[in-house]
Amino acid sequence: MERQDKEFECFMEENVSAPMDDERLQRLTEEISLKFFSRPFLHRATFNPRLRTTGGRYLLASGNIEINKKYFDAHGMPELIGIIKHELCHYHLHQTGKGFRHKDKDFKRLIEKVGAPRYCTPLPGQGAAGKPEKIHLYRCSRCGALYRRKRRINTEKFVCGRCLGKLVACRA
């Protein structure tokens, strides 16, 4: 196990500055699979630029894994490794005929065992659903106070908290 840890660390150190592409992702996925699951990854791992709201996905029909490169660009190698571990949990459980869905006990146990995240970190400027956060601005017509809200508010019902003046929607 110690030799395996050193090999993984060497792989990580020598590849920190190298550009991340599908070939490097494949090698990294194979290394993580051997190190954390003690089983080989026998399919393909690729970046899919069409993914929007998820860090990655395991494809049941083909056994391949697709990763959203935006998460690597925004959060770096630790986030990428977490996403790969998560998808490998789906992969190895499915390949062995165990419960591979998020709700299954086998999946929850394996996630805990390998230290994989349950969900990925949201991309900057995006909410939990992966959609860009829209900010609604309101200005008091009497005192000029600004209010920033994630949700729209009914300006007929709500008033300024400082002077009870009428709120007017502004452009964000």
Describe the structure.
The protein is α+β, with helices and mostly antiparallel strands and 172 residues long. The protein folds into two domains: 15-114, Metalloproteases ("zincins"), catalytic domain (Zincin-like), CATH 3.30.2010.10; 136-170. It is built from five helices and six strands, in the order ααβββαααβββ. It has helices at residues 2-14, 22-37, 69-75, 77-95, 105-114, and strands at residues 45-47, 56-58, 65-67, 136-140, 146-149, 167-170. The strands form two sheets. A three-stranded mixed beta sheet has the order 1-3-2. The protein has a three-stranded antiparallel beta sheet with strand order 5-4-6, with no helix packed on it. A hairpin with a 5-residue loop joins strand 4 and strand 5. Helix 3 (69-75) packs antiparallel against helix 4. It is elongated, with a radius of gyration of 22 Å. It starts with a helix and ends with a strand.
